[in-house]
Amino acid sequence: MKKLIPFILLAFISVNCLSQQNQLWRGFFSYTEIKDLSQSVDKVYAAPENTVFSKNTITNELKTVNSIDGFKADVVSAVHYSESFRKIVVGNQNGLLLVVNETDGSVLNVIDILNKPSIPPNKKKINHIYEHEGKVYLSCDFGICVFDLATSQFGDTYFIGPAGEEVQVFQTTVFNGFIYAVTQLNGIRRAELSNPNLVDFSQWSTFDPGYWSGIVTFQNQLVVSSSNNRVYKHAAGAFQEIANVGQAIVDLRAYDNRLVFTSANNVYVYDNQLLQLSHITQIPDVASVFTCATAIGDKIFIGTADKGLHQTTIGNTTLFENCTPNGPARNKLFRIKKSDNFLWAVYGGYSKQYNPWEYCCGGTPSEYEISKFSDQSGWNDTPYADLLGAKAISNITINPNNPNQIFFGSFFSGLLKTNNGTPEILYNSANSILEDLIPNVSLVNSSAFDKQESIWITNSRVSKGLKVFKKDGQWLSYDFNNVTTNPVSDSYSSIAIDKNGTKWIGSYRNGVIAFNERYNNKFILIKTGADTGNLPNNDVRCVAIDNRNQLWIGTFEGLRVLPGVDRFLYDTSLETNPIIILDDNLAQELFYQQSIMDIVVDGANNKWVAIDGAGAFLVSPNGQETLYHFTKANSPLPSDNVLDIEIDGVTGEVFFATDKGLVSFQGIATKPAEDLSQVYVYPNPVRPGYEGTVKISGLIDNANIKITDIEGNLVYETTSEGGTIEWDTKAFGKHKVASGVYMIFISADDGVETKVKKVMIIR
């Protein structure tokens, strides 16, 4: 696909700095899943699954680093802060090393381990990062790598197995001129640090053959944690027990005059005399397990598996403070929906095969919260305990005439009705005509409101797959038995209702089901085959009706478009068409054989398309031009797996829900206004050095816009599709206009309503 708008690819290859382009993006990340901690004299550094944040222990300032800043983590596994170099070093499960320079905010992506072909992908995890004399020693699943903080270059790699083989290294430390490494199966290995030939495995010897999990240097002695749940110090040639934790020790660290070790339900803090200062077994009102902990003076910081970072003090471990930055409950979002005042998020869900038991949680349906966000109040959650038992919530539908009334589809428990997020009733087979797959399992996914405020609901894996709940409280159902093949084995993706009241339903096994009860319960099925719909695959993942009443259909293997929804009214069968584009002068289908996860139409009739594993595209109204293609490599997207897209029709902001976080891009396509009273031009004036476009918002649809210089010479003309247009400040796209005042003449297509604005350009 050519004609791609450039998107500053260079900024995201190796070193990432904040740029003007990134100012168009916002990040909404969960910081609750703490993988590791580090510390300095006045800060604690926490590493959630794919971000980093810090808290200043003096000012209490929280600072986050995420994909908007160029921090593109995979799954974080270790973090270390270098006070000498003012750098945050972050290791990942796939071997990626990220180095954040606190001085200028730049992020260095070091891919040496990630791209090392001789090491199997499942053995590249970085388990621990230890600093000594300007170098960090990375304990990996294959051995030890050395990274120079001054030059930002990798040094040697040590394969320290007894025969030079790869061994899993948990942690390293330096003591009395030796480097010590705790391994999974070969005990504690060590070598003289001054030896110039440490790449030779024969220079390494076994210090102790036991089974250990961690090692630190503390108060001029070695302290180790063992697989028998105990902590020891090594003195006078022998190990002496310090503590029996009673659980597997998951984190052992020493900083300044504090020794801290952590298990799932225990945090111990010892002083420099190895006397116990604190023993913490729980955080009040926080149901989670501990993953790591550290201490800075009298302050103790505890990282949890899913409830963020918490702080207490050695003198009062009953009083805790939550230090976690505000964000959604989880990074893997399933669906999002924008209302007038809030962005709503749910976390699912079901697998690609529509199985709620296989989505998460060890074979049980999810019991996740509902989240909502506003710029004024941030993120707030309604916990699962308040959701009347609604599991696997996977859909959000807002009543367009009453934005406080929101329905949440549960792909296990039915349909949850809420008032501004407060649950009112859970509809299921006991109190409605919703049907069960098996007792007490009602699979409700997509739903949509019609013009009469009736909500239409898909009920998967039953014969009567379509239900309607009318405004007056009446329920009706519609049978698919004589329409689709084996409806009791089918599930449904999305539903769209057109201007005629026709329901267009994407299905897992039967293509698109079109239905309108006003036409004698008329059904038409759009499937694969030249005479039955021409879909590339019967697995339809999404449907969308654009501003020209065309139906866009995203399938598991490509895209199709129905030229007009009105055809349903008078035809008995419907044929869809591919979009043919030229790529290198070769004709091909747009999104050929691509799995299309979502299609959303913006105010200018452009289409945002989420492609499984390939990011998000913005294509022109007819699909012939690709306006943007955002991926993890060239944008702040934290993942190429975009699961859902939502647009704020008022502001044009586009939200991308991925499996690793939520980000938004400030688009310019907004819904058309009803009149020209609120036309706004920005930026105004256009100052020297500005490289962006001039936006004219608050337009009605099909408005004619003419821009002239002060003498009346025409420099630009266009017709609006939606509520906003852009001008690149060029005279008909050729050369930039000179400094001066430019007149903007706006008129409705019938000429009845007009508006005149001005913009000043300063070169």
TrEMBL record:
How far does the signal peptide extend, from start to end residue?
1-19
- What Pfam family does this protein match (any one)? PorZ_N_b_propeller
**Record flagged with keyword Signal:** yes
**Source organism phylogeny:** Bacteria, Pseudomonadati, Bacteroidota, Flavobacteriia, Flavobacteriales
Its keywords, alphabetically, are: Signal
The name under which this protein is listed is PorZ N-terminal beta-propeller domain-containing protein
Q: Which residues form the PorZ N-terminal beta-propeller domain?
A: 44-205
